[in-house]
Amino acid sequence: MFPLLANVSLATDQTIAATRLMLHIAHVDGAQTAEEVALIRLFYEGAGDGGAWPDFASLQPVRPGEFSRAFGDPAQRDLVIAFCLMVAYADGALSADELSVVAAVAAEIGMPAARVDELLALVKDHMLAQFARLPDAASVATVARELG
Fold first, then answer.
1. In a 10 Å sphere around its CB, with 0-12 CB exposed, 13-18 middle and 19+ buried, how is residue 13 labelled?
2. Closest Cα partner for 90 from 148, 136, 34?
3. Distance CA 117, CA 120 (A)
4. How far apart, in whole angstroms, are the C-alpha atoms of residue 63 and residue 137?
5. Which residue has the higher pLDDT, 21 or 93?
6. Contact 25/81 with Cβ under 8 angstroms?
7. Is 52 exposed, middle or buried (0-12, 13-18, 19+ CB in 10 A)?
8. Residue 146: its pLDDT value, please?
9. SS3 of 120, please?
10. What does the alpha-carbon distance between residue 103 and residue 34 come to, in Å, rounded to a whole number?
């Protein structure tokens, strides 16, 4: 788990909204990849409390402006944008279009642009920390350059 977000919780409707925002990010480059879907599904199904949640396959990407007031707490906004950034990176690269859409989503839900930059740096650091456990240092260095 992304350490900064360990103590953040979302209500059911917020979790569904966050999932739909991530699906929106996954569609930016055309079709969503298996890696993006797996990460989004893990987020969604991991948040379930055993209640009657909509089936993951039934969720659709968002319409612009749909969730502008859904995340009142700054920590909730951090969680949503951090996961959107992770989804954007899930296929191996964060494209300029993906970053632009994540920034637009962040602005829509009330997050300052400077905070998006901070979260982007934290997500990169987190991803590198996960790769740093690998025995092949050259591969880790290559990934670090690509995250750039």
1. exposed
2. 34
3. 5
4. 43
5. 21
6. no
7. exposed
8. 54
9. helix
10. 23
- Cα gap 42→52, rounded to integer Å: 17
Cα 27 to Cα 45, 69, 83, 107, distances in angstroms: 20, 22, 15, 19
Radius of gyration of the chain, Cα coordinates, nearest whole angstrom = 15
List C-alpha distances in Å: 77 to 65, 92, 93, 119, 146: 15, 24, 22, 11, 26
Lookup: tokens for 128: 């590198």
Give the C-alpha separation, 112 to 73, whole Å: 13
* Average pLDDT in the chain: 82
Look at residue 25 and give its three-state secondary structure. helix
Residues with Cβ < 8 Å from 7, sequence gap 6 or more? 75
> Is-contact 84 21, C-beta < 8 A?
yes
- Please check whether residue 47 is in contact with residue 56, taking contact to mean a CB–CB distance below 8 angstroms: no
Domains of the chain, by residue range, sit at: 9-147
CATH of domain 9-147: 1.10.3680
Greatest mean pLDDT among 57-71, 88-102, 120-134 lies in 88-102
The number of beta carbons lying within 10 Å of the beta carbon of residue 141 is 12
